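Narrative of accomplishments. A recurring question from our advisory board has been how the design workflow behaves on a single, concrete structure rather than in aggregate. To address it, we present the structure tokens for one chain from the evaluation set, followed by the sequence designed for it. No filtering or post-editing was applied between the two.
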């Protein structure tokens, strides 16, 4: 059985939750005009530069009651900032919050999995990979835009052209060009993994897996002992091969105002 403080009252694994809050802080620190909204038990990133991208306008909460108390305030804050799409990350076990958000016009449009691993189990790589540590941030953003079919400049607008100093970017090359990327962010001994993407034309070569393996070894050498991330169903198998285990699911409950 998990320790009492290992799981938040909302259902998050505590390490994953703290690491995700650090990500929201980084979004707020890097993006143009972005800010972090903190209320007791609730943290929200507000990124006006990407008004229709809820990835950068996200809410995490420690206790369902805390979210219920401020949900209307959050809606007003996003509206005043000109944000038209924002999402609440809801653990799949928290059905009460899911119903509350549904009743307020939110719609569930994503089902990521929480995943974690112990870094002591990460083996040294046995293959050659052309990659760069502390890679060009612009390349990471461009790869993510292309991989997710977003307008060029979306990720840089969301995360900032000069990102939070805690981010460490990695890029892998394929056929002579930057083709896969990710960023790590260490928080309280946990290596959060973000912005993992591979260009469509370079997929199938396990670039992201090899890149992540090297990033996790670097994090271990810098004192991290665990790693957490949120994965879609497509990427989960690759993370399992590296030693990640599934901690449960999340639901992304988005509120979106469509343009006239």
């Amino acid at each position: 059985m998990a320790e009492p403080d290992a799981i938040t009252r909302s259902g998050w694994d505590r390490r994953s939750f703290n690491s995700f809050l650090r990500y929201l802080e980084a979004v707020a620190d890097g993006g143009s005009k972005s800010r972090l909204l903190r209320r007791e038990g609730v943290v929200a990133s507000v990124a006006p530069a990407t008004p229709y991208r809820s990835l950068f306008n996200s809410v995490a909460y420690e206790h369902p009651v805390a979210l219920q108390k401020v949900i209307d305030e959050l809606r007003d804050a996003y509206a005043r900032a000109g944000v038209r799409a924002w999402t609440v990350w809801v653990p799949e076990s928290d059905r009460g919050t899911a119903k509350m958000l549904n009743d307020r016009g939110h719609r569930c449009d994503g089902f990521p999995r929480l995943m974690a691993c112990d870094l002591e189990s990460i083996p040294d790589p046995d293959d050659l990979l052309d990659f760069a540590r502390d890679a060009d941030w612009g390349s990471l953003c461009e790869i993510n835009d292309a991989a997710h079919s977003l307008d060029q400049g979306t990720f840089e607008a969301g995360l900032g052209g000069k990102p939070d100093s805690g981010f460490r970017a990695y890029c892998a090359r394929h056929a002579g060009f930057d083709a896969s990327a990710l960023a790590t962010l260490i928080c309280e001994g946990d290596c959060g993994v973000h912005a993992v993407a591979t260009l469509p034309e370079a997929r199938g070569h396990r670039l992201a897996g090899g890149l992540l393996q090297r990033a996790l070894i670097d994090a271990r050498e810098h004192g991290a002992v665990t790693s957490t991330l949120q994965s879609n169903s497509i990427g989960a198998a690759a993370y399992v091969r590296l030693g990640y285990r599934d901690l449960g699911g999340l639901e992304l409950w988005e509120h979106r105002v469509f343009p006239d």
